[in-house]
Amino acid sequence: MKTKTFIALLFTAFSFVLGAQETTYTFKKGDYSGIGKWYMGREIAHVMGYQGMSWLERSQREEEENSALLLKNMRIRPEDDIADIGAGSGYHVFQMAEMAIDGTIYAVDIQEEMLLAMKKKMETNAVNNVKLVRGDEKTVNLEENSVDKILIVDVYHEMSDPVAMMRSIKKALRPRGQLYLIEYRAEDPEVPIKRLHKMTEEQAVKEMATFGFRLKENINNLPWQHCMVFVKGI
């Protein structure tokens, strides 16, 4: 009798956990730019494939985004270990590598083509403080407490499993580390980006709170994007 009771309780507990996992996300038809998967009222956008690499390297990007100011906002020190999540072709990676000369820049991406593009740049320019990391939809594949700063530029809204990914990211960030979440401002209709590829500060703060991050500041000096600085909550 006790065995049957134990099995019943075990089954109930398993069903509860499974049910909680299933209700983390909802699935319904939405925007053509989305994957039909929703988190906290936000539809997750399609990932930009490596075929769009030329857009990442466009000549007008500095004027539109002012990455030099973004990196200045990060207050990068020579000894910093920094992870660029969704590094793409390495637009920010190699700029940071010149600044964190005694640290390591972890260039994380899930697309092999992006990693190959960065590898070619590393070899061409003899860069030795960048480490390429192949992530996947659930993990950034970084060691625990391995980085001082994490940069996520216009990528978070495309993460198909943000819960798993942010757990992995939080684990990799050192206790006093900072997360720089950069997203196009959805509050501004003048920002010429598709709706699902923008986020409001309110939505970002709400989602980050569920992962144990709190907003330290939103540095409001970029042309089109939020520069939100998050730290681990107390």
Overall tally of domains:
1
Here the CATH topology equals: Rossmann fold
- The level 1 CATH classification is Alpha Beta
Q: What gap, in angstroms, lies between the N and C termini?
A: 45 Å
List low-pLDDT spans. 5-22
Q: What is the percentage of strand-forming residues?
A: 25-35%
User: Any guess at the CATH architecture?
Assistant: 3-Layer(aba) Sandwich
The CATH superfamily bears the name Vaccinia Virus protein VP39
Rounded mean pLDDT is: 91
Strands, total number: 11
Helix fraction bin: 25-40%
SSE order, one letter for each helix or strand = HEEEHHHEHEHEEHEEHEE
Radius of gyration using CA atoms only: 19 Å
Find the structural class using helix and strand composition.
alpha/beta
Largest sheet: 8 strands, mixed
What is the general shape?
Answer: globular
State the helix count: 8
Care to describe what's here?
The protein is an alpha/beta fold. The chain has a single domain (42-232), classed as Rossmann fold (3-Layer(aba) Sandwich). Helix content is 35%, strand content 26%. The protein contains eight helices and eleven strands. It has helices at 2-24, 53-56, 61-65, 67-73, 93-99, 112-125, 162-172, 201-210; strands spanning 26-27, 34-39, 42-45, 82-85, 105-109, 130-134, 147-153, 173-185, 198-199, 213-218, 225-232. Strands 4, 5, 6, 7, 8, 9, 10 and 11 form an eight-stranded mixed β-sheet that branches. A three-stranded antiparallel β-sheet has the order 1-2-3. Strand 10 (213-218) and strand 11 form a beta hairpin. The chain is globular. The relative contact order is 0.13. The model is unreliable at 5-22 (pLDDT under 50). It comes from Croceivirga thetidis. Keywords: Methyltransferase, Signal, Transferase. GO terms for molecular function: methyltransferase activity. Residues 81-205 form the Methyltransferase domain. InterPro entries: Methyltranfer_dom, SAM-dependent_MTases_sf.
